[in-house]
Amino acid sequence: MARRVKKAPSVCTDLPLDTADVCAKLHLLRQLLGSCFGPTGRLKQVHNNIGGHVVTTSTSSVLLPAISSSQPFVNMIKTSILNHVSRFSDCGLFAAVFCLALIERAKRSALRESVAVKVNRHLLGLCTRYLQREDCGCKVKLDFCSIHNLITLARSVISSKPACVLTESETLHLSKLAVQAFLLTVPCDNPGTVSLGKTVTVPVEGHSVLHSAVFPGLLLGITDVFCLSKVDNLNSAPLIMVLFSASLAGDLCELGDGTIEVHPGADTDSQILDQLLELGKQAVKDEVKLFVCQKVIHPVLQQYLKSHGVVVIERLGISLMDPLIELTGAQPVATLHTTIPAKAYGKVRGLSIRQFGSNTMLHLHPYAESAICTMILCHRNETMLSELKVVCQKTEHVLRLTLREPFALLGGGCTETHLAAYIRHESMNEVTEIASALGCSQTEYLIGVEGFCCSLESVVTALEHNNGNSLVDLTHAHHWTLSADVMKEQMEDSFAFCGCGLVQTSSSKKWTYINTKYTEFAPAPLSRDTILQPCVLDSFTAKLNAFQVAVETANLALDVRYIIQDVN
Amino acid sequence: MGSSVINQRQHVGLQKLSALAGITHSSLGPNKKYKFIQDDTSGESALVCSCFRIFENLELTCAVGQLVYETVQAHQKVYHTGSGCLLFLAGAWSRAALECLQKGISVSHIISAMSEGMDICLDVCRKFSFSTEGLGGTQSESCIATSHGLGLLPSKKPPHLQGATNVHHKTLNTSGQRKLKLSRHFCEAKSENVSTAQPPPQPKHPDIAHIAEGLSHGCMDAMNLVRKASSMQSKTQDTGSSSFDVTKVVTCVLPGLPGESADVVPGCIVLLSADQASVAHHLKEQPLKVALITGDLSDTYCHLGFSRPKGMQHVSDPLALLSSSKEEKWLIKVVMILLNLEVNLILVSGLANEKVIQCCCKHHILVVDKVKASVLEPFANATGAVPVTYPTQLSKHCVGTGVKAVIWRDLSSHERKYCTAVHISTGGNSGLVTVIITSCVQGKLQALEDQFWACAYRLHHALKDKALLPGAGVTEMLCIHHLQTQAEHHVKHSIEKSGDVLKTRTAANHHRGVVLQLMADGLIDYVSTVMVNTGRISKIKARTIVNQQLQDYSGHVGIAAKFSQLFLEEEKEDTVVALSVKSNEAPAVKIYDNLSVKQEVWRKALDVVFLVLQTDAEVITGVAQKSENLMLL
Fold first, then answer.
1. A104 Cα to chain B: minimum distance (Å)
2. Which of the four pLDDT bands, split at 50, 70 and 90, describes residue A554?
3. Is the C or the N end of chain A the one with fewer CB within 10 Å?
4. Domain check: are A437 and A549 in the same one?
5. Rounded distance, CA B266 to CA B236, Å?
6. What is the DSSP letter of B388?
7. What is the pLDDT of residue B153?
8. Measured between CA atoms, how close is A51 to chain B, in angstroms?
9. Domain match, B405 and B510 both
10. Has residue B497 got a pLDDT over 60?
11. pLDDT one-digit tens code per residue, A260-309
12. Do A27 and A129 reside in the same domain of the chain?
């Protein structure tokens, strides 16, 4: 009999947020994620206890999957944030820090959980409505006629991850490349339904970042140098290519398990090889110039094709199949026991060779208008390169989101401080009606509002990692940073900008430290005729969703009454 | 799962980095010291001499160690030289960062100031680099052979340094004005040297012998091998210019022979058994036809990606049991093909079956297996052979001609099966050269091979960059000077302005000055460590000399010459002992450094420091129970 252990009863914890253990873990998680937040954030090294590969990162999409807690509470919050990140790519850390701050504040204020939940929900609605208004003070409409805002948006995302160790010029170069790649994936004149293309990223280690480049079309790695000499003269007319998804290695891989009886004198290998050579003969007859297979090609077939001047690429891999199909219009042939139908052939405009260090790549130029492009990403070392790859994919996603909603929010903490000031001001109106609608007392409502705003402001202070001070100006409610050895009174005389770069110091402004109480004021809109452009932008869609996810997750956490855990 | 949070002021990560770098101090510079690394559990030991090999043999358990190893390995794979410098500077600059943290400078300021420092250093490298063209003047082959016939003028100021003084006044361009200056010297050289001169207006081909000497950095023997390889390749290229193709150089390590047998031969050297050797003997003096096989030479070999289904059963004919097996049939078929095509020699990149080798030997066909791809390719190009995967693919188009096989040396010993070294070449037009590295001490072989590759790649990079830097610490001294100047400028600037303008700016400037000064100290540390490694100076004396030189420098333009001379005097004494060929009147040997390698090494060292500086915690997965110093999530 199999060894059986008596089933232990499940463990039930009630009011988990009251237990010190859970609170300590949540606090630790908040410190961990808060310390990674922003362009001056700190990095974390993630590795297994036994040893093995070390990943140095500050991105939530890499950090969060590595964290698995014994507390299901923590896991629930983590899963919720990961869900947001998988859908929107950006603002993961923001959502996590905001959510954890809300939970902590609610506990600390001793507000009843049900009241806190209701107030949070009400304020979320208030913020969302404000952000979606035309005249919202922290929203910027993206002008697609000028590249400037798109580059700023790309630049803000790229520079938010310090593990990439990029200089100013490198950041700018990459931002331009990201926008270029994004524009290449937006098809121009296609009738009918429009779908975005794809950017294939090829990482190359050991070279300077400034060698990164974007190419329309696809770049495929080739290892066989023997066929290279025949490539260069194929740049004139459109070339025919064929794509196989079946294995052309000459083996019987599809047959699976079970016994096969082979009669004497029958040679399966040579029969399959004959079939392969038939395919090759047909390809040569049909003037195919590029022969691509997702899997392995038999060396005899390769030799035959090469001797007839055909460029052969094998082992393409599944991830490149879709982009290649879209680029060339080819239909992959799934079996070798057939003649290749004419409509399976695809077309490329030309082929050329590109060299990146020791990597040799074949560049397929698109024949028709195509939305596929390839980005070659270079960096000096593997750690920085893998972080850079994640960041570039994030940037691509953020740029695509602008097609859905062509807005951006001011970055650098200005949106959060602006919202906090707005909420404080708005909640002064109609306190009694709202309180009775929510079923709580006015004091409770005001405590809930204060908690919400302080949570927003704590996200802003998490941006500062160098012992500086955070300030809010009392006119536009933007965020300002001061280094530790400067007094706030000297702000008026200095020449500085707020976090997003839109507001400049002047003698008429007043500031206060961010955690101090200030009399409510309506944040003034910025003058329309300013020539200043924001220099830090956040994605509107991603941030708005991050907001919602954070508040809803915090509400869910505050609502949890019991945790029932199965022990074995 | 657990994670630990580190106190910022102490920054354990940076301390670890500095400690790791301390391991390799003695393998810096031209005087490297050997180390034994012993494994306590298994008793194995390794004799290592370079930073890279030290790291390879250590088992590092910390995350910082992993990051450093990965960086060093990636650098070594591409550049093959400079890892010691990388690690040292990473350690020195991490100490600088630690000091800055203790002084209360914030991480962002440290990073931006150090980036500025790096820009200054890279700029200095660019400005003070000089072209490889026209260095050293023309020389004949006989001059190369003698140890001090370097083509240098027996004049007071060697040409390249005179050019360097011009650099201070004009920006350097590696063509145009510089060339004019040098070609004048050139004419002087021509009148004094007996050697045949080339007409000056032509674009100068780099003088490889001279550059190689300057880049040898203490490994004269290894660099001599490189020079021989290069001249051998130049002869085959037939273009009259000297060139060096490092991708066509292969090393062959032969233990047991004394070091002086090290040599360079065109083509390749393979170790064969007695039977094969007798075939080779039989084939000597004949022009051979060659077939190239990628993959194994056996009946059961299948190319990569081919998988045999496991459930195949062959129904056998009762009569079939009497006839020969599948393997024999295959063997007969292959031998028939080879005999028909008159192939005498087969080079296989994989393994060859024993039976196949013996069968071929009977028919006087020489089979050589485990041939590297870097050998197969030049053979293919030079002989016209086309490499195939299966011997059944061979046709007359795939067979190449013009190969020679000769027995090079008989290394028989009773314990070794493969004891005859056979030399296979294509008549000298493939560009492929094999460098034979030998030593009586088996443990030293890897170090000797590494030194050879380091020298070879230094030459390769010099020719690729078409530029060189002044060596022997001159470039570092120039960087230190510039860094210190800029540091003083920042501090002065901050003091002037502290009155009226916002204090942040001035504080930041003052901090920048401190950081730049500490970076310069790191470089001073590097230079003095290299000097200490010569074994003749103490650390304090070295630092004193360096500081003295720096003080003398300001404004005085000819310091570069002086500093270089200082080093060289010590070197000369060294080489007098070692080679005992140089006379006292020999002009000073010019020492060079690679431009791209140095820039890369400095940049990578700073990358590692930045990554470790900004890391403040480790997230360790898979931790089951609580342990001290860890906070559990």
1. 16
2. very high
3. N
4. yes
5. 9
6. B
7. 21
8. 7
9. no
10. no
11. 777 777 777 888 888 999 999 999 999 998 999 999 999 889 889 988 88
12. yes
Residues A450 and A315 in one domain: no
DSSP 3-state of B557: coil
Instruction: With respect to residue A162, please indicate whether it lies within any of the assigned structural domains.
Output: no
A251 touches B: beta carbon within 8 Å: yes
The DSSP 8-state label assigned to residue A73 in this structure reads H
In angstroms, what separates the C-alpha of A546 from chain B's closest C-alpha?
23
- Please tell me whether residues B14 and B121 are part of one structural domain: yes
DSSP B42: T
Q: Are residues B409 and B539 in the same domain?
A: no
Least CB–CB distance from A264: residue in B78, B316, B611: B316
- Judged against a pLDDT cut of 80, whether residue B183 lies above it is answered with no
- Number of folded domains in chain A? 2
Query: So what's the pLDDT on residue B25?
Result: 85
Domains held by chain B: number: 2
Q: What angle do CA A268, A271, A274 make, to 5 degrees?
A: 150
Identify the residue whose tokens are 């800055």: B100
pLDDT-derived band at B23 (thresholds 50, 70, 90) equals confident
For residue B459, tell me if it sits in a domain: no
pLDDT in tens, A403-443: 989 999 999 999 999 999 999 998 888 888 888 888 888 99
Judge: B3–A28 Cβ closer than 8 Å, yes or no.
yes
Give the DSSP letter of residue A388: H
| Token output for A277 | 């050579």
Domain of residue A120: give its range.
11-137+410-565
Query: Which pLDDT value is given to residue B505?
Result: 56
> How confident is residue B132, by pLDDT bands cut at 50, 70 and 90?
confident
Reduce the DSSP state of residue A261 to 3 states and report it.
strand
Give chain A positions within 8 Å (CB) of B615.
Answer: 42-45, 56
Residue A293 is part of a domain; what is its CATH number? 3.50.7.10
Asked whether residue B398 falls in the same domain as residue B480, the answer is no
Contact call for residues A230 and A196 (beta carbons, < 8 A): no
- Return the residue matching tokens 């037939």: B238
- Of residues A163, A259, A382, nearest to B311 (C-beta): A259
- Most B CBs within 10 A among A227, A381, A388, A487, hence the mutation to make, goes to A381
- Domain housing B336: 268-301+324-430
* Number of residues written out for chain B: 633
Catalogue the long-range contacts made by B395-400 (C-beta closer than 8 Å, 24 or more residues apart).
Answer: B395/B341, B396/B341, B397/A307, B398/B291, B398/B292, B399/B289, B399/B290, B399/B291, B399/B341, B399/B342, B399/B343, B400/B289, B400/B290, B400/B291, B400/B292
- Give chain A's mean pLDDT: 87
> Do B508 and B373 lie in a common domain?
no
Q: How far is CA A562 from CA A12, A26, A470, in A?
A: 7, 17, 39
Indicate yes or no: CB of B108 within 8 angstroms of CB of A264: no
Please tell me the predicted confidence (pLDDT) of residue B52: 86
Which CATH number is A126's domain given?
A: 1.10.560.10
> pLDDT class for A551, splitting at 50, 70, 90?
very high
Q: Does residue A130 lie within any of the structural domains?
A: yes
Which of B371, B399, B430 is at the close of a domain?
A: B430
Same domain, B409 and B500: no
Contact of A40 with chain B, judged by CB distance below 8 Å, is answered with: yes
Say what the pLDDT of residue B576 is.
30
Shortest Cα–Cα distance, A442 to chain B (Å): 38
Residue of B303, B399, B608 for testing the chain A interface, max A β-carbons within 10 Å = B303
- Most B CBs within 10 A among A35, A45, A226, hence the mutation to make, goes to A45
